[in-house]
Amino acid sequence: MLQEAWREGRLNDEPGILCVANPSVKGAEIYRHFVDVLKCKKFDFLIPDESHDTCTDPEGLSDFYCSALDEFFGDADKDVYVRYFHTHMQSMLSSEFNPVMGGK
């Protein structure tokens, strides 16, 4: 519904999706679902609310992010924006980049 409202010009900006990374699934599959099925070009993969002591599957979480990142880099659609990836890449590539909203 939101995507349709945006395409019809009833929303100023394209709606996005927030998704908590799940170590039991492949991030690439979630990425493809958002892009191909839901036709969404703006989304974020949030880190689960866990600590070093409570994270039960750190390798699965790493696999989720790595497969999603591989899919992102291999995607022919360069209009896809994944905030988590964009923020970290920009912070590595530019000393001027500040990931804090409104911060200098």
Please provide a written account of the structure.
- The chain has one domain (2-93).
- It is mainly α.
- β2, α3 and β3 (81-82) form a beta-alpha-beta unit.
- Strands 1-2-3 form a 3-stranded parallel β-sheet.
- The longest helix has 17 residues, at 58-74.
- The radius of gyration is 15 Å and the shape is globular.
- It has helices at residues 2-7, 27-37, 58-74, 83-93; strands at 17-20, 42-46, 81-82.
- The protein is built from 4 helices and 3 strands.
Shape: globular
Q: Specify Rg, calculated over alpha carbons.
A: 15 Å
Q: Give me the side-by-side strand order of the main sheet.
A: 1-2-3
Q: Count of helical segments?
A: 4
Helix/strand-derived class? mainly alpha
Distance between the termini: 37 Å
What percent of residues are in strands? Answer: 5-15%
The largest pleated sheet is described as:
3 strands, parallel
Low-confidence stretches: none
Indicate how many domains the architecture comprises: 1
What is the average per-residue confidence, as pLDDT, rounded to a whole number? 86
Strand and helix order = HEHEHEH
Query: What is the helix fraction of residues, given as a range?
Result: 40-55%
Total strands: 3
Summarize the structure.
The protein is mostly helical and 104 residues long. It is 43% helix and 11% strand.
List keywords for this structure.
mainly alpha; 104 residues; 3-stranded parallel beta sheet; globular
